[in-house]
């Protein structure tokens, strides 16, 4: 069940101070990270202050260095360009398992849900969702779009399958209304927030539509 959850709708770098705050109550936290990008890169060369190391691509690396997140975190929907295999090695070194966008074609939604649930177990969980996990054809209003993402429906199905985990906080980030078309990104983001709230108030995932249909009777 969700306890003391906080919801944010802003730039993703704000996750770092949120994790710092949650750590004071829960200790190291598992992160479920829906995103096209890893966000675990070390600080970029040329940074002249500690603060300048913090960007929307480095904050999880810094969070791990500060002891805020555990070794049981997981990405979902990754499809970014990489500089080399060292990017993946670095990602693993800061406690993340990776589910790529293409994995949904190979193993399906049900197996992705199982992998996420098994990874975080009953630990305190922070859920962070960057809207660019969704294909830019369905959510164009974001700063760093990547082609070939999941559909809104697929993301919603996975989220519903996470009900019952020990969530202590969540966010939806990187929505940029200035780039939207017919408000489709804003609609998707708002709908996902609604699903997050509903999921966090549930003790277990809902039955499949197929299972529910067997119990439906026509009263007419």
Question: How would you portray this structure in words?
Answer:
- Belongs to the arginase family. Agmatinase subfamily.
- Keywords: Hydrolase, Metal-binding.
- It comes from Marasmius oreades (fairy-ring Marasmius).
- The protein is an alpha/beta fold and 220 residues long.
- The chain has a single domain, classed as Arginase, Chain A (3-Layer(aba) Sandwich).
- Helices cover 35% and strands 14% of the residues.
- The protein contains seven helices and six strands, in the order βαβαβαβαβαβαα.
- A six-stranded parallel beta sheet has the order 1-6-5-2-3-4, with helices on both faces.
- α2 links the parallel β2 and β3.
- The longest helix is centred in the middle third of the chain and has 18 residues.
- The radius of gyration is 17 Å and the shape is globular.
- 38% of the residues are buried.
- The N terminus and C terminus are likely disordered.
Give a brief rundown of this model:
With about 220 residues, this protein is of the alpha/beta class. Helix content is about 35%, strand content about 15%. The chain has a six-stranded parallel β-sheet with strand order 1-6-5-2-3-4, sandwiched between helices.
List keywords for this structure.
220 residues, alpha/beta, Arginase, Chain A, six-stranded parallel β-sheet, 35% helix, 14% strand, globular, disordered N terminus, disordered C terminus, agmatinase activity, Ureohydrolase_Mn_BS, Agmatinase, metal-binding
């Amino acid at each position: 069940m969700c306890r003391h959850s906080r919801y944010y709708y802003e730039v993703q770098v704000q996750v770092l101070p949120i994790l710092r705050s949650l750590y004071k109550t829960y200790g190291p936290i598992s992160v479920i990270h829906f995103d096209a990008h890893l966000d675990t890169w070390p600080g970029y060369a040329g940074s002249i202050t500690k603060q300048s190391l913090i960007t929307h691509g480095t904050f999880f690396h810094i969070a791990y260095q500060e002891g805020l997140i555990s070794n049981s975190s997981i990405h979902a929907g990754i499809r970014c360009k990489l500089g080399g295999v060292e990017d993946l090695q670095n990602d693993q070194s800061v406690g993340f398992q990776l589910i790529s966008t293409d994995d949904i074609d190979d193993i399906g939604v049900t197996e992705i849900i199982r992998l996420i649930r098994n990874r975080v177990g009953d630990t305190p969980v922070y859920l962070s969702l960057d809207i660019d996990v969704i294909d830019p054809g369905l959510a164009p209003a974001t700063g760093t779009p990547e082609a070939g993402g999941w559909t809104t429906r697929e993301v919603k199905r996975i989220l519903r399958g996470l009900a019952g985990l020990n969530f202590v906080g969540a966010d939806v980030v990187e929505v940029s209304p200035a780039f939207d078309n017919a408000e489709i990104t804003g609609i998707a983001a708002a709908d996902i927030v609604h699903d997050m709230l509903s999921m966090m108030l549930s003790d277990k995932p809902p039955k499949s539509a197929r299972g529910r249909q067997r119990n439906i009777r026509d009263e007419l």
